[in-house]
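Need residues for this backbone.
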């Protein structure tokens, strides 16, 4: 098992947002977490990543307790977090962003090859590589954020709202790339407000409500679940 959450309770200061949430991700899986706004989806990712420390429960990465391991140490061990929104350095060029993302790689020649591969994969940012990242469109920024996956080749990616604010065409492209990277052996735990899109590409999913587990199943099972359709899919 790549990731196991065992009854995680977490929040911010005195405010508890998630209550005894459990989930897991197996090798090679895409697993999504859906639910209404305020359900605690992003808080779960932050607790796994190390941005916040759970007040109770355990986070296991390949069976090792990493509940209180820092976000940097987790990154070095193959678990990376791509948050929503501010996930790039806007004042650095696209190329400098890629170089910063690749600092964990000790082999500079390997890093150079990985950057070239990432730019060939995301041609929309290749032509902007010498421009400040703040000049990128929303879709290009997300491509730049995702490109660090190609650089680092992590075991597990925590991905928060990858489609936020993007056009349907760009959303399709982003999820296509996620599936391609998954085919190369990278596991994903993603939080996504676009529940239909998330479930359509995920092997399994979890539904959170008021910070607690409510439903779980395969992506197809949840897509066909009447309660999920009524509450989260608009039909």
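Answer:
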């Amino acid at each position: 098992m790549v990731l196991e959450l065992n009854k995680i309770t977490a929040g911010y200061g005195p405010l508890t947002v998630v209550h005894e949430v459990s989930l897991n991700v197996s090798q090679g899986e895409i697993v999504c977490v859906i639910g209404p706004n305020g359900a605690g989806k992003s808080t779960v990712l932050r607790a796994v990543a190390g941005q916040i420390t759970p007040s109770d429960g355990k986070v296991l990465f390949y069976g090792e307790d990493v509940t209180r391991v820092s976000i940097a140490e987790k990154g070095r061990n193959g678990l990376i977090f791509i948050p929503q929104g501010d996930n790039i350095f806007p004042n650095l060029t696209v190329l400098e962003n890629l170089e910063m993302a690749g600092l964990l790689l000790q082999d500079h020649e390997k890093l150079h090859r990985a950057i070239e591969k990432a730019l060939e994969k995301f041609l929309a940012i290749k032509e902007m590589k010498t421009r400040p990242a703040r000049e990128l469109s929303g879709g290009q920024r997300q491509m730049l954020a995702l490109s660090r996956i190609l650089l680092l080749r992590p075991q597990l990616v925590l991905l928060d709202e990858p489609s936020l604010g993007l056009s349907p065409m760009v959303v399709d492209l982003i999820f296509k790339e996620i599936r391609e990277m998954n085919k190369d052996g990278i596991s994903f735990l993603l939080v996504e407000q676009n529940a239909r899109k998330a479930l359509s590409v995920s092997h399994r999913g979890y539904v959170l409500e008021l910070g607690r587990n409510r439903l779980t199943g395969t992506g197809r099972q949840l897509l066909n679940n009447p309660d999920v359709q009524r509450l989260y899919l608009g039909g």
